[in-house]
């Protein structure tokens, strides 16, 4: 007979709670979510709340943390960052892409391809002014740049570990998409620098989805993508590559003076590609939700256009409910509504032109595994630019191909294509996926994610 069976009821409860704490679970944790409105019963804990990153200016970043569905004590910790710059990792990442729940009607439904089947997932609304993150000093929203964002994210993690000390030595991965091609490598670089003074971050790898890595290569690959997919004519392709390419247009746009020649070329490109084709997934019908608004910075021609939403945006409605905000320990400060992408953040978009592929190279040389993956139906940051950048980096680092370019499988279907250099730098496509791969191809993205965490090549047979 076990000792638990012969103890008193009170003693049994006490022993049970001590056992739970030994596994890193505290039922009285101040950040613990008791129950989200409309939430189905689940077997894992989840937490949310604020972590201060600047006491002087009262800057607080909001997070949502979901423990792994099973055996959370042995699973790695993954920090997820959405892009923009200025879009929500909770509303876009957690509730629309790879989190455990999706809003539906008045409640939530389970996402069977949630990434917390493989890891403990930490979603961070960054930089300041995004989602529920705030500062009581509104001047903090002006002139935000990559350097400030990386520093705040580093401080967030330092302070988050104080609240969740059981994760301090856990294997840590950072994953993000779109403009997180800037956020993630720069944060990882700061972690390595910090570790030289104090070993805090057990960084095991980074993964970047449809990322902005190098301004010209990423943006100018759009012309070839449009042409190869039949979206523009031969003549327009020639103008879009020789008269005014896309990087020149974006540069002029953000400098506030678009030249007549670029205006003419972009007008022709827009006419031929049509506003009835979603540029973030050229196979997707025109009815799209604000999950795609994180790319509007990268697609400035559409900044002033109204996105045609044919269905109710349930994520926005859900996160604007007072009972939901209360359950999340969240509050709106200085804004009337929660939005997928910030209306108050003034980001320094000149940072777009600072290449981060060089930072990726530093990480690889430091022994940090890197995966760059691309939804292959995205024309905003097309796979051709990302693949070229990864190949060029491997060549510069004199890395040999260790997995030749080949297909990979999800069940009995081709999941995409992949190539690996030096067993540390990888490129992969997700077949049929948009700019937000976990949203449009959730099962294939989960296969990719699992292989990345395990450090294994993507499945080469089914």
From TrEMBL:
EC number: 3.4.16.-
Single GO term (MF): serine-type carboxypeptidase activity
GO biological process: proteolysis
Enzyme class, spelled out: hydrolase
Principal location: secreted
Keyword set, alphabetical order: Carboxypeptidase, Disulfide bond, Glycoprotein, Hydrolase, Protease, Secreted, Signal
Signal peptide (from-to): 1-28
Gene Ontology CC terms, in alphabetical order: extracellular region; vacuole
One matching Pfam family: Peptidase_S10
Subcellular location: Secreted
Family listed: Belongs to the peptidase S10 family.
Purpose: Probable carboxypeptidase.
Descriptive protein name: Carboxypeptidase
Species, as recorded: Cicer arietinum
Gene field: LOC101511515
């Amino acid at each position: 007979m076990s000792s638990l069976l012969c103890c008193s009821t009170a003693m049994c409860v006490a022993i049970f709670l001590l056992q739970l704490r030994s596994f890193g679970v505290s039922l009285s944790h101040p950040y613990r979510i008791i129950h989200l409105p409309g939430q189905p019963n689940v077997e894992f804990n989840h937490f949310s709340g604020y972590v201060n990153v600047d006491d002087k200016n009262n800057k607080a970043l909001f997070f949502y943390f979901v423990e792994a569905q099973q055996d959370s004590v042995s699973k790695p910790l993954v920090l997820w960052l959405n892009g923009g710059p200025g879009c929500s990792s909770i509303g876009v990442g957690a509730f629309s892409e790879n989190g455990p729940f999706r809003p539906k009607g008045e409640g939530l439904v389970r996402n069977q391809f949630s990434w917390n089947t493989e890891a403990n997932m930490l979603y961070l609304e960054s930089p300041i002014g995004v989602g529920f993150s705030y500062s009581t000093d509104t001047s903090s929203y002006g002139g935000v740049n990559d350097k400030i964002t990386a520093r705040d994210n580093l401080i967030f993690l330092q302070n988050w570990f104080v609240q969740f000390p059981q994760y301090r030595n856990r294997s840590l991965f950072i994953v993000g998409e779109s403009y997180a091609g800037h956020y993630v490598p720069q944060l990882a670089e700061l972690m390595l620098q910090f570790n030289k003074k104090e070993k805090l971050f057990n960084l095991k790898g980074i993964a970047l989805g449809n990322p902005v890595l190098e301004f010209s290569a990423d943006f100018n690959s759009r012309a070839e993508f449009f042409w190869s997919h039949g979206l523009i004519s031969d003549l327009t392709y020639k103008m879009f590559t020789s008269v005014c390419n896309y990087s020149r247009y974006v540069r002029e746009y953000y400098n506030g003076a678009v030249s007549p020649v670029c205006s003419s070329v972009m007008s022709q490109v827009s006419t031929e590609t049509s506003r009835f084709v979603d540029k973030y997934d050229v196979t997707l019908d025109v009815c799209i939700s604000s999950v795609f608004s994180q790319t509007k910075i990268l697609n400035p021609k559409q900044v002033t256009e109204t996105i045609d939403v044919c269905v109710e945006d349930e994520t926005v409605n859900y996160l604007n409910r007072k009972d939901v905000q209360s359950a999340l320990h969240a509050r709106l400060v200085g804004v009337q509504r929660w939005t997928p992408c910030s209306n108050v953040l003034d980001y320094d978009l000149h940072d777009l032109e600072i290449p981060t592929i060089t930072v990726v190279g530093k990480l690889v040389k430091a022994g940090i595994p890197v995966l760059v993956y691309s939804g292959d139906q995205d024309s905003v940051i097309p796979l051709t630019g990302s693949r070229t950048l990864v190949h060029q980096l491997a060549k510069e680092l004199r890395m040999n191909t260790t997995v030749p370019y080949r297909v990979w499988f999800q069940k009995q279907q081709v999941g995409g294509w992949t190539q690996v250099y030096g067993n540390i730098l990888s490129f992969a496509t997700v077949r049929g996926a948009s700019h937000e791969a976990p949203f449009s191809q959730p099962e294939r993205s989960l296969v990719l994610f699992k292989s990345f965490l395990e450090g294994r090549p993507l499945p080469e047979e089914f």
